[in-house]
Amino acid sequence: MSATPQDEPNETALPEPSRGRVLVVDDEPVVVDVLRSLLQREGFEVAVAVDAAGGRRRLNDGSWDCLLLDVMLPDADGMELLRWVRERDDQLAVVMITAFGSVQDAVAAIKSGAFHYLTKPFKNDEVRHLVAQAVQSTLLRRENRDLKRALEERYRFEKLVGKSKPMQEVYRFIDQVAPSRATVLIQGESGTGKELVAHAIHQRGTRSSKPFTVVNSVSIPTELLEDNLFGHVRGAFTGATSDRAGLLEASEGGTILFDEITAISPEVQAKLLRAIQNKEYLRLGSTETRSVDVRILAATNEDMEELVREGRFREDLYYRLNVIKITIPPLRQRMEDVPMLLNHFLDRFNNENDKHLEGFTTEAMELFLNYGWQGNVRELENVVERGVVLAGGPRIDLRDLPSEVRGTPGQESSPRLPEGVGLAEAVASFERHMILDALEQSGGVQKKAAARLGLKPTTLNEKLKRLGIRV
């Protein structure tokens, strides 16, 4: 059955290309000519295939925004090709072309994942409208897919970088605890990434679509923290001219991270305990109990057990918070992650500063691999940012780094290698230093040293031979 062009516009000027890429798979020359002419006038880029085999080749060779597919093809059933397309690209909008009255084919196509259908003979306005909708649908689906992938990539472990055994253990904990409702205590030195771990737990859990709130317990004065957290009612204190919700209420259904939770006063600790135990709280000045559904995470760089023993932190709250504990290792305990972190921060700050630095000089890399990093990942991040900003050459050099990192008098750092040593030698020296240190701490027992290094005993033995280390 042929298609009859209708409602042809008089003007012949083409719109600004391109509104999208459309592939037409149909064996009827008249249908193909009409669709190609009509859609090209509308600003679409159009390609044609006359059978299923040609359609597959075209689909494999490029990216398309809309597929117009005939139900009946000379070498295959169009429905079969539709299923083939859906298995490979569930974002592409497919419009099926059917003969007049083939309602069953149209319904089957929709059920199999088609966007819509056209019935021969079709009206040109119908084609224009439907193809425009199909292209828009494809673009939106791809945008959503790409956004979701970007978010998943960003929040897989919320910018946590590293493949070392200690970090793999952190990732395992995140995966295990994220789906639960349990409170989590995140411990680690300043700069290790405790907030990033909290972000990852939230994003990978069932509350990811709800708010994630960080309460910086140190930066908020004690007298304001209770009000910020629980809110108040009008007249609760001088200046309270209206009711105000607190952070708990604003985070309903989501997650709250109490950063440096040990700074919270005993009074607020008692009220927070009630919110965790009974899932309820009172606004300041109110006698009306409010329910709350918020997951509580807490972070600290202090020894909370010691604080409990000293009476500086409530024991009952500590045990409520310490249902699950995640300890983030300091950078000095996962130095094998330093090169990966350096590349991560280099890419980031290159983009932010519109620079194109290639990397680090041998001398700079040697320093990075031997420095103590008392400030952990945050210190490394700051040093790389400074280096990117100040670098005058294609690579970050020692002169681009702060004096305290370069090793000024009184700066505690590992021994420096002589100038002129290549990167391979620097890495080998670092590896040798770690192995000797592990052997020393393990009393010379290779099996224990291998466990400390996260290596198999056979792998450690091979490294000992390669590096000429005798035990």
Attribute tags:
five-stranded parallel sheet, 3 domains, alpha/beta, disordered N terminus, Rossmann fold, 19 helices, 471 residues, 13% strand, single chain, Helicase, Ruva Protein, domain 3
Count every helix, treating DSSP H or I runs of 4 or more residues as helices. Answer: 19
Helix coverage percent: 40-55%
Second CATH tier, the architecture of the largest domain: 3-Layer(aba) Sandwich
- What is the CA-CA span between the terminal residues? 86 Å
Going by CATH, the homologous superfamily of the largest domain would be P-loop containing nucleotide triphosphate hydrolases
User: Which sequence of strands runs across the widest sheet?
Assistant: 2-1-3-4-5
Derived structural class: alpha/beta
Indicate the proportion of strand residues.
5-15%
How does the overall form come out from the CA principal axes?
extended
What do we call the CATH topology of the largest domain? Rossmann fold
Give the mean pLDDT: 85
* Radius of gyration, CA atoms, in whole angstroms: 32 Å
Q: Topology of this structure?
A:
Blueprint: E1 21-25, H1 29-41, E2 45-49, H2 52-61, E3 66-70, H3 78-88, E4 93-98, H4 103-111, E5 116-119, H5 124-155, H6 165-177, E6 184-187, H7 194-203, E7 212-216, H8 222-230, E8 231-232, E9 244-245, H9 247-250, E10 255-259, H10 266-278, E11 280-282, E12 289-291, E13 295-300, H11 304-309, H12 315-321, E14 324-327, H13 338-352, E15 359-360, H14 362-370, H15 376-390, E16 395-396, H16 403-406, H17 423-441, H18 446-453, H19 457-467
Parallel strand pairs: 1-2, 1-3, 3-4, 4-5, 6-13, 6-14, 7-10, 10-13, 15-16
Antiparallel strand pairs: 8-9, 11-12
